[in-house]
Structure formats: structure tokens, C-alpha cells
Amino acid sequence: MTTVADPTTEVKPQSRAHWRDHLRRQLSEDEEVNAAVCPQAEGQRLAPRRRRRADLRKKLKEYQARFRRDCAQFEEQVQESILIRVRRKFQEAIDARVLAVLGRPDGARRDRSDRTVVPEFCTSCGTHWRSHFFRDGHWKRTLQTRWGSISLQMPRLRCDCGGTVTIAYPQFAPYQRRFVNVQEQILRLSALCLSLRQIRMVLAMDGTRISIATLCKEIGKVADLSGAEFKRRCEVPPVVLLDGVWSSLAVETGEAFINDRGRKRDRKEVERVPLLVAWGVWPESGEKALLGWVVGKEEDCASWQRLLEMLHGRGLHADKGLRLFISDGSSGLEAALAMVSFGRVAHQRCVFHKIRNVLDKVRGEAVEGDRKVQREARKQRRDEVLVDLVPIWQAESEAEARRRYEAFVAKWEVREPEAVARLRNGFEATLVYLQVKVGVQTEGQEWDARHLRTTSALERVNRSIRVKLRAATVFQTEAGLTANVYLTLGVRGRREPMELQGWIHSIALRAEALQHAA
Q: Which helix (H) or strand (E) holds 252?
């Protein structure tokens, strides 16, 4: 029989002591249940579910550690297998080359009547008859590859006269300690603007340990390739951009000193030198190509003259299609252009540099307040000046550009006299592109003004060079500076990985060939 509570009956509130005793009894019952379900948790304040989670986390950490250990062991096994196969391939190629020279396998008797002539010869008597040659043991040679360092057994060949027979192997050159893929990796990392220490660290992660001095030598091998590549270009661009970027170069002082290891070394001092760059532009297609560069002492007439004479020697002249030089306001370049004759070639002052120089002279109105308020006021004034300044060079004709120039002067001469004075200085040289554009229009061509009035395309190239210069900090030799710039600029225009890989492979082979030819 179910008992129904009388709603009219008053319920008395329980005291605080009653609820305290109730909670104690409940906790005691929970501890007994925990001890029954999870005996190892007895005496601890962890619920069974929390305890199981802790055990799972512990087992997971142990599993992850064991997994990482197994992965490391597997990678080591794979690396060992790769090195074994690489060494086997090299050894098979070496033995096949010796077999082709001698014409008999190891252990076979010689045919004394054989008069076969081979390219290899005895360094003592000079004979080319392979019947006079025989195997005389091996000598060890170490070769660094991208997969690791391998040890090879190089067969030693002797002649009956006691002389030595030297064999040329197509896989590597005499005294070559690094395979071509290691050289490619060094050149690739340098082209991607890594410093020498970063390159050494990346190679060490692959098991190849090379000193910084050796890295400098490997990179410096391509220094002579830049001039050879530029000499092959016979097409003359209509427009040439000229600009300079500054670098730090260690120059010998003619003095010597003893370093901490007691070795005599030449004393050097760091100098800031300009890298003067020439970049060709074909306005009809927008195509661009590097024409060359020189390392100068200053941005003076003599340094610019060296670059211009190099361009002149490679066929750049008005008679072959050269129409326009574009540069900033370097006085040394203007003097050098007067000394090197390119024919009737115009000289355009970079509009971007002119705009930047004008904005630097904008002072703004005097306002009361802190520096932040004054800075904001000057920025606002610069924006106002920029709005009226840029349309001058967006005009379609020279007459329209001069009309806008006069309007700008009339509006801002009183309020910004220094900015207007800077604009007037050399303003005529910023309108040369309009005259060139009219000239090519009479010939039935249409050139985009973007390629005729600024050196912005070259500024983007210089940005890539500066990234490399900051990574290197100081170059110890001019050849190293030339090689690094050549690699850095070679990356530009090669967007596909396979195209870049093919270019790196070609210059590595050419550099190695030049070294052994020398």
C-alpha cells in the first residue's frame, strides 16, 4: 500500500550537523566502492574513471616513445640500405671501367700477344698496350654523396715497366671528394639565400660535414660562369635599367698577423662596396633579363664606366636596337654615360625615385602637440601632395604632363617650397620616356609606359640580392660575392622546381668542368 504524503504537513528543515554527517557517510561509501573496483587506488582521492585515464595517458606516452624509437631505427636501417646500394653501384661502375680497360676479369691470365690500344697509358714508359697492364691490389677512396659518405675500393693498375696506369672514371674526376649531387645541394641552398653556417647545418643533418672554407670554395667555382653566360646573349634589349646595391666586402690591407693558432694570415678590413647591376627589358613583351654587373669602389664615374664598357663590348648600341637607359639621379652614372658612346640613346630619370625625393622634402604645417600629432599631420600632408604629384607622369602626352606640372607648382610652391624645388631639379629628365614612346609609335610599335619610366623591376631584383647580402653579412672575396649574386639572380624567373633543379645541375657540371680544365 502506497503512502501519500499530506501536503498540509509542515516539513522541518534539516540542521547543518545532519547534512555534515550525511556527506561523511557518502564519502565513506564511495571509498569502499573505489577500493572494491580499483584496489590499487585505495587510500587515494581518485575516482576509478580518472585513474583509468591516468593509466591510459601513461601507456600512450610509453607507446609514443617506443614508436619514435622504432622510427629512428627504421630510418637508420633505410639509410644503411641506401648507402650499401649506392656504394655497390659505384663499385660496379669502377670494376666495369677497369674491365673495359684490361679486357679480362680479375684473376684471368694476360694474353701477351694482344696489341689492343686503350686511351689509358703508363705514366712511366707511355705505352697504351693493355697487355702490359695488370692489377696490383686496391687503395681506399672516400666519396661524399647526398646520401652519406661511402668508402670505395679503387683498383691499382701497374705496367710491366713498374709504372702506374691512371684511369679516368666518368663518375668523378681525379681528387674529387664530393659527388656532383652534394655540389648541387650546396649551390641550391646558396641560391635560396641561406648563409654558409645555415648551409653547413643543413648538410650536417644529411650526414655530410663540410667546413665553411670548403663551402666558400665550392660556391666560388661558379664565379666565372656569370661572364660566360652573359657573353652568349646576343639579343640587344631596347631598354636597360641601371642601379646599384651596397654590400660588405673584406679587402686585404697588405699587412699580415698571427692568429690565435699561431698561423700567419693576411689582415683584412671590411669595406662597403656597390654592386652595379644592368637589367635588360623588352617593352613589347615585358620580358626581362640580367645583362651583367660589376663590383665597384663607389658609385663614381670610374665604376659605372666599367659596367657601361662591359655592356658596350657585348654589343649594346643604338644601331642594334638600344633606345633608353633608366636610372636614378647618380651623378657618377651621368658622367660615365658621357664617356661611353652608345649612339643616340636617351637617358630617363626614374620617376619613382623622383617622387620619393619630393615627398622627403614635404614638411607640413606647424601644429601644436606631441611628436605623434606632428607625425600624423606630416603624413596627411604627404598624402595630399602625393595625390597631386603622381598624375604628372600618368599623362598621355608631354604637353599634358607639363600642364599638370605647372598646376602642381602653382598649388604647392608657397606651402611646400622645398618639395617644389626638389621637383624642379631634374624634372626634364623624368619626361624623356614620353619622347621615346612617341618615337616608337611612329615606327608602328606600342610600348607600355610602365617599362619606360621607373627602375621598379630592378628594385625587385635588388630586394632578392639584399636578402642574400644580409644572410652573408660580409664576403671574404670578390669571387664569392659574384658567385652568390649569380646564384641568387639565377633563381629569379625559374618558378618550376624541375626547371630550377636542371639549372643547378647544369652549372654544377660546368663549374666542375672549368675547374679541371684550368
A: strand 239-258
Q: Per-residue pLDDT averaged across 63-83, rounded?
A: 86
Residue 99 burial class via C-beta count within 10 angstroms: exposed 0-12, middle 13-18, buried 19 and up:
middle
Residue 289 CA to residue 279 CA, distance in Å, equals 6
Q: In what order do the strands lie in the sheet with 164-165?
A: 133-145, 148-159, 164-165
Give the whole-angstrom CA distance, residue 365 versus residue 106: 94
Domain ranges in the chain are 76-177, 235-477
Whole-angstrom Cα distance, residue 206 to residue 182? 10
Cα–Cα distance for residue pair 136/47, rounded to 1 Å: 79
- 3-state DSSP: the chain helix, strand, coil percent, rounded to 5? 55, 15, 30
Question: Phi and psi at residue 5, in whole multiples of 5°?
Answer: -70, 140
* Residue 309 burial (C-beta neighbours within 10 Å; 0-12, 13-18, 19+): middle
DSSP 185: H
The tens digit of pLDDT for each residue in 109-141 reads 888 888 888 988 998 898 998 889 999 889 898
The 10 Å Cβ neighbour count of residue 35 is: 14
pTM, two decimals, is 0.66
Residue 293 has pLDDT above 50, yes or no: yes
Q: Provide the sign of the torsion angle of the four alpha carbons 368, 370, 375, 377, taken in this order.
A: negative
The candidate with the shortest Cα–Cα distance to 307, out of 296, 323, 315, 320, is 296
Give the tens place of pLDDT for each residue, 14-35. Answer: 555 665 566 666 666 655 655 5
Asked if residue 6 has pLDDT above 50, the reply is no
